[in-house]
Amino acid sequence: MLTSKIMAHRGLSSLAPENSLSALKKAAEEGCQWVEIDAVACGDGTIVMWHDNSVDRCSDGTGLLSDHNATSITALDCGAWFSDLFQGEKMATIEEAIVLIQSLGLGLNLEFKLYENSPEKVVAPVLALLQKHWEDLDKLIISSFDQAALEYCHNHQPELQLGKLYDEIPENWFAQMQSINAVSCHCNYKLLQKVQVEAIKAAGYEVYCYTPNDPELVKAHWGWGVDAIITDYPQRYNHV
Ligand code: G3P
Ligand code: MG
């Protein structure tokens, strides 16, 4: 399934603004094969490639994303905060992102963040877009911390490969993953223990680690059986 052990986190987010079209192009230019991006909903239901529930950190605007819509986001500069080189970068819709990733031939790990929204609002429109644009389901993983988002995917498109995200891995991880027929468990490398990786692998799931930015930090993890990492610095992992 995976063609690479390295995924570029939020696009190649150490070399371009996170979750921007430039970050996706940069990932392809640097030879990455997979990208991870986040999907969240604006107030009007427009789904954008974005991480936070506000626009404050990664744009020149302020306020909640739920107070924005398809028109108002076009007024935001989402690149200057990162560097002058990216001044004028626009917030991308998830459709723009999907179309670009498909055209670049990259694998996609698409992470849903519901925040206060329902799966019907955030997930349903994206599944429709994927059906319209995405060609190879082997090169697509849908991931989320939100079990409800993954349940929605499993119930509506059981053929999708699903990844369950955890910070602290809970006791009921197996029941949660089994109930959505997940393929992978995406874990915080800082909290992850060898015994957990062994148990998850023994249950038949892949294990991915987010977001180690220094190869030294996950040196042992590869030996534990970790399948892939999701990093802001894929360029530091050329040896893998
Ligand atoms: O999908 C892995 C990672 O992106 C999860 O954390 O907060 O960076 O979306 P976050
Ligand atoms: Mg993410």
How would you characterize the overall build of this protein?
By secondary structure, the chain is an alpha/beta fold. It has one domain (6-53, 94-237): Alpha-Beta Barrel (TIM Barrel), CATH 3.20.20. The protein has helices at residues 21-29, 94-104, 119-133, 147-156, 173-179, 194-202, 219-224, and strands spanning 6-9, 34-41, 47-49, 107-112, 140-144, 161-166, 184-188, 206-210, 228-231. The longest helix has 15 residues, at 119-133. The two termini are 17 Å apart. 43% of the residues are buried. The structure holds SN-glycerol-3-phosphate and magnesium ion. Magnesium ion is lined by residues 36, 38, 111.
Compile the SSE list and pairings.
Blueprint (H helix, E strand, L loop, with lengths): L5 E4 L11 H9 L4 E8 L5 E3 L44 H11 L2 E6 L6 H15 L6 E5 L2 H10 L4 E6 L6 H7 L4 E5 L5 H9 L3 E5 L8 H6 L3 E4 L9
Largest sheet: 8 strands, parallel, barrel
Question: From the helix content, strand content and strand pairing, which structural class follows?
Answer: alpha/beta
Strand content: 15-25%
Radius of gyration: 17 Å
CATH topology: TIM Barrel
What small ligands are held by the chains? SN-glycerol-3-phosphate, magnesium ion
* Total number of helices: 7
N- to C-terminal distance: 17 Å
CATH superfamily: Phosphatidylinositol (PI) phosphodiesterase
CATH class annotation: Alpha Beta
Task: List the uncertain runs.
Answer: none
| DSSP helix fraction | 25-40%
In brief:
The protein has 240 residues and is α/β, with parallel strands linked by helices. It is 28% helix and 19% strand.
